[in-house]
Amino acid sequence: MTPERFKRCKTVLARRQPDLTVLMDNVHKPHNLSAIVRSCDAVGIFDIHAVSRVKSVRTKKDITAGSGKWVDVHLHPDLGTAATLLKQKNMQILAAHPDEQAIDYRHVDYTRPTAILLGQELDGVTDEGLALADQHVVIPMLGMVDSLNVSVAAALILFEAQRQRLAAGLYDDKHLDQTTFANTLFEWSHPKMAAFYRSKALPYPKLDEEGNIIESEEHTRARLATGIKVKP
User: What is the pLDDT of residues 119-159, one digit of tens each?
Assistant: First the structure.
């Protein structure tokens, strides 16, 4: 971890938008999942949510371009559980679905806490998801086809959200709480050491201005007992 890399991690993390996210309703194709994660990282999303019929959500490294390391994916047992969590955070849930109730996706206020609900590739958002949503949004289509690939639709909506948030100055201030910011910065900067400290049930040590680890005596004793070396 060079000082330059550490500085970039701090800058990117300071721009993360914890009140903007996506909820994937059984989106299961790794290609699409990966592209959505990559778009989420690009617009500054901190973490995303998914409901899946399978036990895990798989992405492809060549498509995420490494962005999977920077965006956490939370897997929920069902849509109701996920929606309850998001609404407890005062998020509006917007279902990307072309029906009579839907409004143009550009006519939504994305500076509000927002979760964008995306449906599976073939059938779109489920009836349960549509019922849980606060609003349905649509991307106007002028051609013969009436829908876009889910990852393309996600990117269009997310970058509209980014445009609005940039104009409102929401990327100018840090929104993550101090503990989350510090812990995430440590995990981004020192992933192997973070895994070690978690395995020992130890809190992460502090970092200096260049990203070097400042260990306490407790941290040092635990590390030396296992022979792990750390950059001073």
Answer: 987 788 999 999 999 999 999 989 988 888 899 999 999 99
- Percentage of the chain beyond pLDDT 70 is 90
Sheet with 114-119, strands from edge to edge, namely: 72-76, 47-51, 20-25, 114-119, 92-96, 135-138, 103-104
Q: Is 89 helix (H, G, I), strand (E, B) or coil?
A: coil
Residue pair 70/188 in contact (Cβ under 8 Å)? The answer is yes
| pLDDT at residue 230 tops 70 | no
How far apart are alpha carbons 155 and 17 in whole angstroms? 16
Last-in-domain residue among 124, 147, 167: 167
Provide the whole-model pTM.
0.87
Same domain as 189, residue 99? no
